[in-house]
Amino acid sequence: MAVNLLLGLQWGDEGKGKIVDVLTKDYDIIARFQGGPNAGHTLEFDGIKHVLHTIPSGIFHDNVINLVGNGVVIDPVIFKKELDNLEQYSIDYKSKLLISRKAHLILPTHRLLDAASEAAKGKAKIGSTLKGIGPTYMDKTGRNGIRVGDLELTDWKTRYQNLADKHKAMIDFYDAEIEYDLAELEKEFFEAIEVLKSLTIIDSEEYLYQAQKAGKTILAEGAQGSLLDIDFGTYPFVTSSNTTAAGACTGLGVAPNQIGEVLGIFKAYTTRVGSGPFPTELFDEDGETMGRVGNEFGATTGRSRRCGWLDLVALKYAVQINGVTQLMMMKGDVLSGFKTLKICTAYKYKGETITHLPYNIEEENISPIYTEVAGWASDLTKMSDPSEFPEELNAYITFLEKELETPITIVSVGPDRTQTIHRTVAV
Fold first, then answer.
1. Which of 41, 53, 104, 110 is catalytic?
2. Catalytic: 13?
3. Active site residue 114
4. More exposed terminus of the chain, fewer Cβ within 10 Å: N or C?
């Protein structure tokens, strides 16, 4: 049975958590394949908003296994807080949450390193979430990291101490003014480690292989967005993992020829959190309206998201490098009330008009070229069927499908799982 893949196509915050939650009923296993607690997947149902950072978004469904894959980095403290939050909803997570032995652990000193490194950059900071993600992935590639499976070894605390001592020396090197009480951080860390050890720890690549052979349906869940990919994103303003489709193979141990549908999620406009280039960013009333109506605040950091018109050049690029087979458009309701909508369909790049994403999209090199289309006034949030869509929204969707050469099969018209409209697209 092929593994389907769901990922974001912009700079994150596209609404992946909601769509995973909506689609979970069709799957036996939801498997997270990269990133860490820098992700914030928001789900809303029954009048309650839930934010997950590491736990897969299928956890609220019965009879669904949720797997944290080897490509994920886990902060035991944040993970424990997520578990504690689930207990108030009487969720039996111990029976349906599995952790890969090969997933790496975020130590307290990883977070301190992150803060020291970012502080030392000054104005050149990249907008890190300060969750220790980058330093953890650095230790992973530097072959110094501590993995979940190491917790089963008798000398794991010695390994921990050796790495923590190395980190303390590096923090001193940065000479950044950060205050911390490592003893207090470690107390909380080791308590959380005991909780992590009480969960089911597995050889995840073998588990998924056997699940495929048994005909189980599997959905791989990505975090962040394609434009934050360490290789293909707007480097250096990126995350530390592969957020694109290829990351699902290395982050779960799934063979490339076993990937089935690739479901790409995008907002009807564009947002970005933190630093980095953003060609279609708005600094006017339209941008303010998008942020206010769309409640554009980071689920993990709480930072305001920068808002702008839909960047079709960047979106085409993401569809291309991921091999997207279906698209899901989020937050179409936020654009209600705009008389005219703008879509960036090309860039003016060093005096030349181009329609592909170039190596550098800093403001001094490019300016967006827009196509204007009619907006719609209708309130979409009460709609439940595509037949109710205003003509202008249908035209917007049709325009995007033609440009992206990919069908839009879901349109989200609000944050609740019930505000999700499935479209039947002719093949």
1. 41
2. yes
3. no
4. C
